[in-house]
Design brief:
α2 runs antiparallel to α3, α2 runs antiparallel to α4 and α7 packs antiparallel against α8. By secondary structure, this protein is mainly α. The radius of gyration is 17 Å and the shape is globular. It is built from 9 helices and no strands. The termini are far apart.
């Protein structure tokens, strides 16, 4: 097994632990959106573990699909739960609506021919970035209004998972993006568990 495979297994184990902690701390009946977010994180971690151990093309393809889901879904799902608990139910609905254009784009990407793949890929990346930035802004708004350290940390980690990892991969050292992403996702799930359950 190569060092990259060992690193990937370790990072996925950390992600499984963090998402599993979130599942134990967050009740599915009280906070279904955040619970679903942790299920997605745990699923991605398990798929990553299987891919690291088996290392075949099928598990690699499945992990690529779950990575796309991890980039998009957990952040808005946790935001919906955070805003549902407060007085801003309309803002929670807005976070749910963030997912509609992304879902349409993903479906269109699978249905269209390969000739328009670049155009759809560019549109999908733009929608991903807009969704992530919109949700990070929402966490910052919540941090300012409620003074929660957990939501501030979640905003920083969500930013690092996408943009910090890309910066590290391109400017710092090749291969440094994956650890930044996985550690950021892991920290996000731990902080989300505390934020959603209302701990100070």
């Amino acid at each position: 097994m190569s060092d990259n495979a060992n690193l990937s297994i370790a990072l996925n184990a950390i992600l499984c632990g963090a998402a599993g902690f979130g599942l134990l701390k967050i009740g599915p009946s009280e906070h279904p959106w955040a619970f679903t977010s942790c299920v997605i994180g745990l699923t991605h971690g398990i798929v990553g573990l299987v891919n690291g151990l088996a290392g075949d093309d099928n598990t690699r393809k499945i992990q690529e699909k779950t990575t796309g889901i991890m980039e998009i879904l957990p952040l808005p799902l946790v935001n919906v739960d955070l805003y549902m608990g407060g007085e801003s139910n309309k803002i929670a609905l807005a976070h749910g609506l963030f997912l509609v254009p992304l879902t349409v784009s993903v479906v269109m990407a699978y249905l269209n021919s390969e000739s328009s793949e670049d155009e759809i890929s560019g549109t999908l990346q733009t929608l991903k970035v807009m969704t992530i930035l919109g949700n990070i802004t929402s966490l910052v708004f919540l941090t300012i209004n409620e003074g929660s350290v957990y939501t501030a940390g979640m905003a920083v980690l969500a930013f690092m998972a996408k943009f910090g990892a890309e910066f590290c991969e391109e400017k710092v050292k090749e291969g440094s993006g994956q650890p930044v992403t996985y550690l950021s996702w892991s920290g996000f799930f731990i902080l989300a568990a505390f934020a959603v359950t209302g701990e100070k």
